[in-house]
Amino acid sequence: xxxxxxxxxxxxxxxxxxxxxxxxxxxxxxxxxxxxxxxxxxxxxxxxxxxxxxxxxxxxxxxxxxxxxxxxxxxxxxxxxxxxxxxxxxxxxxxxxxxxxxxxxxxxxxxxxxxxxxxxxxxxxxxxxxxxxxxxxxx
Length: 139
Known about the structure:
Blueprint: H1 3-49, E1 53-60, E2 63-69, E3 74-80, E4 83-88, H2 89-138
Helix pairs in contact: 1-2
């Protein structure tokens, strides 16, 4: 095989490595969102156990204000694009659980794409090794 073919393979490998890194980053982000959604559900459930509870509210830069939660009747949910809605605790939990299912599907999809990209990378490495062996045998 020619040097041109080797260069094409190297370019394909670089693109696949970039794609694989992007998928890994996306997967990490999805796992972070999954942990956050799970923590939100647990927090809402614990609020329902107490009618009056103390908490810390973040105000930025690692600074918190101590406050009391006197009403847990309504939960405000950010649904995206800067839009928030008010729901009762049970509806909020149901909404978050539905989002968790969507996130889990996205994680599975991303993992499958990562697996495919890894297989293509291995195949590319094998092809490059074959080119190197063929070139060294030809000399």
